[in-house]
Design a protein that fits this description.
By secondary structure, the protein is of the alpha/beta class. It has a domain at 19-103 and 167-246: Rossmann fold (3-Layer(aba) Sandwich). It is built from 10 helices and 10 strands. It has a 6-stranded mixed β-sheet with strand order 6-7-8-3-9-10, sandwiched between helices. A 4-stranded antiparallel β-sheet has the order 2-1-4-5, covered by helices on one side.
């Protein structure tokens, strides 16, 4: 993906904190997927999670959001253990989640989808305006139903809805999947802007070129376990490391 210079945005309305996973174990019923996984994402950092299909990347996101219970371990947001909270409380603590497949309310308008995001943390009109400034296309489509949007516009809406939380941490699962290059670049620029405002960002992405164009660090996963965590700059210089872990 081509990198373009991005101007510094206005003073942040979001603000960031550290997200930390401490030796978490989780899965579905009796099927354990994550095994003693530990990660740390700092404020103003993009940490990309890479691994083969089935490595446990999406399960990691769901465990953070409380969508599947932990068997053991803890999820901390700026030192607070949030792993015992009910799933609907996790966004209220300031974690935005853009799942694979977007999961919009397709029968609702763009405005109504965004209103749901604003309600979660009682964000105000200033937050809505900042989000719409990031996604001018959504301002144009404001009264349209989500189901009438293109795939790229739906991804913008899913991202914008998460940003309406004024997140401290942001989780993105395959945000560029199936998008045309112009939409990919628009999403990429917003992710980088969120880093500049101090948000801690955890990104799952299959496209290695997309990962390396934005990442500060890359964490590799295999069979539900955390493997090496490396500076992205080292991986940009030596692609053989990526090939070893993800076979691309």
């Amino acid at each position: 993906m081509k990198s373009t210079p991005i101007a510094r945005c206005r003073p942040p309305i979001w603000g960031g904190m550290m997200l930390e996973l401490k030796a978490i174990n989780a899965g579905y019923g009796r099927a354990q997927v994550l095994r003693d996984l530990s990660l740390r994402v700092q404020s103003g950092e993009i940490l990309c999670l890479l691994g083969r299909n089935g490595a446990g990347k999406t399960t990691t996101m769901q465990a953070i959001m409380g969508l599947i219970p932990l068997m053991s371990g803890a999820v901390l947001l700026d030192g607070e253990d949030i792993s015992q909270l009910p799933a609907h409380e996790v966004p209220r603590r300031g974690i935005g989640y853009i799942p694979q497949g977007r999961r919009l309310f397709n029968g609702l308008t763009v405005a109504e989808n965004l209103e749901i995001g604003l309600m979660a943390r009682k964000s105000g009109h200033d937050t809505l305006e900042e989000v719409l400034d990031l996604f001018p296309r959504l301002r144009e489509r404001y009264r349209q139903r989500a189901q009438t949007l293109s795939g790229g516009e739906q991804q913008m809406l899913a991202t914008a809805r998460a940003l309406c939380l004024r997140p401290k941490a942001l989780l993105l699962d395959e945000p560029t999947e199936g998008l045309q290059p112009s939409m990919i670049e628009a999403i990429r620029q917003v992710i980088v802007k969120m880093r500049q405002t101090g948000v801690a960002i955890l990104l799952v992405e299959q496209r290695v070129d997309a990962v390396l164009s934005v990442a500060d660090r890359v964490a590799f996963m295999e069979n539900g376990r955390g493997e090496a965590v490396m500076d992205a700059e080292n991986l940009r210089r030596d692609h053989s490391i990526v090939e070893r872990y993800v076979g691309v």
